[in-house]
């Protein structure tokens, strides 16, 4: 027995919760540290890099869930850790106003918990989808759950942005507490008996984690796709920690307005994913490889425009940021379709390990991209005006997107693309 469409949508709610908590730490709290507390952008960059760095353990989470036969347990425990980390991160920001040292200590512990939570919950969830979803539904399941995550990010960012003005520390803790507790409760409901009746069996061999990971890395397709994921996700995440401070410092956005900007960007991501799904499924327009390349090139173009309009802050920022999200979504969903097709391409009972490997590559790239983007802005702002300093980083990110597009055009095989339909017909 495999996952029904209803169960797939239930699991998508877990992704919604993951996105809702993470967006608070990478956008709202980042903005507060850089603008309201006047801290260097590299500080939140290092904290976010910490939680991404800890996610290098994702292959291990996937391997453990391959062998254990109970992925729901790790999904729930991971979400609890993530919720504790999310609230702790907000509390750390509040403490920084009175004691920078104490606030930093709390923040380090909190962001470490976030990394553990996302790694355990997210990897186990994707592994469950890869092993318990019928082959004809795998790509559609990945697309559905990813869209639900983006939905959670967009709605949370927009809602929090509306309620956070005027900003007070007490209001911040109240909002973050509501989001984190709600995420845990919704995860418990979404995963209740979801594995009951599924035809899943733990991995029978006695191979250790290192040996199993080495076996997957020896597969050429898995190895090359890992490199592509790292390159493209470095480009994807370089602007994550600097876009809201850019909006505040260059365009004069308030904390609520910049948080809403993040919500609008992720709304664009959601729309881009929907467009690719409809185009590939309903109208058979293009292969996934074409959408990956187009999304990367479009993202590069939007970043260039963001740089140009920032030189005088005369043109509106919001529509261009939505356009960036739109092309980001096109690229991301097409890449996910290929990923789900490749997850089961190779030795069986290694789906979790492969998803963990690609998840680790994404996490390392996200931490590296976010950190290098924030650090570069800090360095450039010492000698350049804010619009020029931020713009230089945006242009570097655009160049990486172009390089990723070239690599995607060369490595994504026609057979993989053809097999990875986003919403297969029944």
Outline the secondary-structure elements.
Layout: H1 5-36, H2 42-54, H3 58-68, H4 71-96, H5 100-132, H6 138-164, H7 169-191, H8 209-217, H9 220-237, H10 243-251, H11 255-281, H12 288-309, H13 318-343, H14 351-380, H15 386-411, H16 414-419
Helix pairs in contact: 1-2, 1-4, 1-5, 1-6, 1-7, 1-10, 1-11, 2-5, 2-14, 3-5, 3-14, 4-5, 4-7, 5-14, 6-7, 6-11, 6-13, 9-13, 9-14, 9-15, 10-11, 11-13, 12-13, 12-15, 14-15
Can you walk through the features of this model?
With 426 residues, the chain is an all-alpha fold. The chain has a single domain (5-192, 209-419), classed as Up-down Bundle (Growth Hormone, Chain: A). 79% of the residues lie in helices and 0% in strands. Helix 1 runs antiparallel to helix 5 (100-132) and helix 1 runs antiparallel to helix 7 (169-191). The chain is globular and about 55 Å long.
Question: Which keywords apply here?
Answer:
mainly alpha; disordered C terminus; Growth Hormone, Chain: A; globular; 426 residues
CATH topology: Growth Hormone, Chain: A
Radius of gyration: 20 Å
CATH class: Mainly Alpha
Task: Extract low-pLDDT stretches.
Answer: 414-426
Portion of residues within helices: over 70%
Architecture in CATH?
Up-down Bundle
């Amino acid at each position: 027995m495999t996952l029904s469409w209803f169960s797939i949508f239930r699991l998508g709610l877990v992704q919604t919760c993951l996105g809702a908590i993470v967006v608070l730490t990478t956008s709202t709290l980042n903005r507060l540290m850089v603008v309201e507390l006047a801290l260097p952008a590299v500080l939140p960059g290092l904290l976010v890099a910490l939680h991404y760095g800890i996610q290098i353990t994702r292959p291990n989470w996937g391997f453990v869930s391959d062998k254990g036969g109970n992925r729901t347990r790790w999904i729930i425990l991971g979400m609890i850790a993530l919720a504790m980390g999310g609230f702790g991160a907000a509390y750390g920001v509040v403490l920084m106003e009175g004691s920078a040292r104490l606030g930093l200590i709390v923040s380090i512990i909190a962001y470490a918990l976030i990394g553990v939570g996302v790694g355990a919950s997210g990897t186990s969830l994707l592994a469950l989808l890869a092993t318990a979803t019928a082959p004809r539904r795998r790509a559609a399941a990945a697309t559905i759950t990813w869209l639900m995550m983006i939905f959670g990010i967009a709605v949370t960012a927009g809602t929090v942005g509306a309620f956070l003005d005027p900003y007070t520390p007490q209001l911040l803790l109240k909002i973050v507490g509501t989001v984190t507790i709600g995420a845990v409760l919704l995860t418990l409901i979404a995963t209740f008996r979801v594995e009951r009746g599924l035809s899943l069996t733990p991995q029978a061999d006695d191979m250790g984690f290192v040996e199993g990971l080495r076996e997957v890395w020896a597969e050429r397709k898995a190895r090359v796709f890992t490199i592509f994921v790292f390159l493209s996700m470095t480009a994807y995440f370089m602007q994550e920690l600097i876009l809201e401070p850019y909006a505040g410092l260059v365009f004069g956005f308030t904390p609520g307005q910049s948080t809403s900007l993040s919500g609008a960007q992720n709304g664009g991501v959601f729309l881009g994913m929907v467009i690719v799904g409809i185009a590939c499924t309903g109208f058979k327009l293009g292969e996934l490889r074409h959408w990956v390349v187009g999304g990367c090139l479009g993202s590069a173009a939007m970043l260039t425009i963001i740089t140009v309009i920032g030189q005088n802050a005369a043109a509106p920022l919001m529509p261009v940021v939505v356009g960036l999200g739109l092309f980001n979504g096109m690229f991301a969903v097409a890449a996910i379709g290929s990923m789900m097709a490749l997850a089961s391409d190779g030795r069986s009972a290694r789906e979790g390990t492969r998803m963990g490997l690609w998840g680790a590559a994404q996490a390392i790239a996200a931490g590296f991209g976010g950190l290098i983007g924030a650090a570069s802005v800090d360095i450039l702002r010492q000698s350049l005006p804010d619009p020029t300093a931020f713009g230089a980083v945006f242009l570097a990110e655009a160049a990486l997107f172009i390089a990723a597009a070239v690599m995607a055009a060369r490595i994504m095989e026609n057979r993989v693309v053809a097999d990875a339909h986003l919403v297969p017909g029944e």
